[in-house]
């Protein structure tokens, strides 16, 4: 197993290097960027040599007076020191911009991930064990609706519904009175109220698809010979389903967790934009629009790292849960 892990880590290093090159090149492909717009504004404002001096100073500040390969090597070499460059739009260090949003991003994304799986797995098991009954048909219909509706539409509908029924706040993570205030019990309660809407929205979209996957896999597993053998030995049906069948049927959902880790950083971008949440997702969206190469490239690289780590962790969990899986 250690050989397998070491081999995966060694493969990840050139993979990340290739991703960093491709992301850097793609972000630079369109002509112009946010800094070009800013320099054009300076020239319109002043229209003299002072604007050219300021423009030249900005280019030197961000290293844009150097060849592209030097810009890339300077950016990548800074990762060792924790220096990811400076954002064009915000004129701040990239690490500071990401760090101030990272806590809320992890809170929302990990919370919604746990909430979704806690709903999807039991519902999928129930639906599979009540195949073609009225309850299974109702759950299947709701799942199809959940998968077909776009996230931003669900966000708007659920926001209004929860506001009308429970009076919960609609946008952001804090009420205006708690913005910038130190953490307290009241602020924590206010945060929990604001998290209700995004968690429900993500759960509606995520639970629907995962429930269908769990149901289909469990139905296939219940037809396997080892399940018939377990029943023939006189084991309780609940033990057969939970300990034997569900343990095998959950394998694809574990693999999906590995693929879902980048969403922890992107923070369900569209939903975050609609609900005005201060997560990393909207920051990445704005950086791509502005061609803010240091900010966008850093977030993309971290998302790629999470994807590689997530797949490795998922493989190890699969080997632990399912004794039939071995990597040596």
Characterization of this structure:
Helices cover 77% and strands 0% of the residues. It contains 14 helices and no strands. The radius of gyration is 25 Å and the shape is globular.
Looking at the structure, what is the overall shape? globular
Largest sheet: none
Helix content: over 70%
- Give the integer mean of the pLDDT values: 77
Number of strands: 0
Report the total helices: 14
Category by helix and strand content: mainly alpha
Order of helices and strands: HHHHHHHHHHHHHH
Any descriptors?
single chain; 328 residues; 77% helix; mainly alpha
List the helices and strands and how they pair.
Blueprint (H helix, E strand, L loop, with lengths): L1 H27 L5 H13 L2 H13 L6 H10 L16 H36 L4 H15 L2 H16 L18 H38 L2 H8 L4 H13 L1 H16 L2 H7 L4 H11 L2 H29 L7
Helix pairs in contact: 1-14, 2-3, 5-6, 5-8, 5-11, 6-8, 7-8, 7-12, 8-10, 11-14, 12-13, 13-14
Short recap of the structure:
The chain has 328 residues and is mainly α. It has helices at 2-28, 34-46, 49-61, 68-77, 94-129, 134-148, 151-166, 185-222, 225-232, 237-249, 251-266, 269-275, 280-290, 293-321. It has 14 helices and no strands.
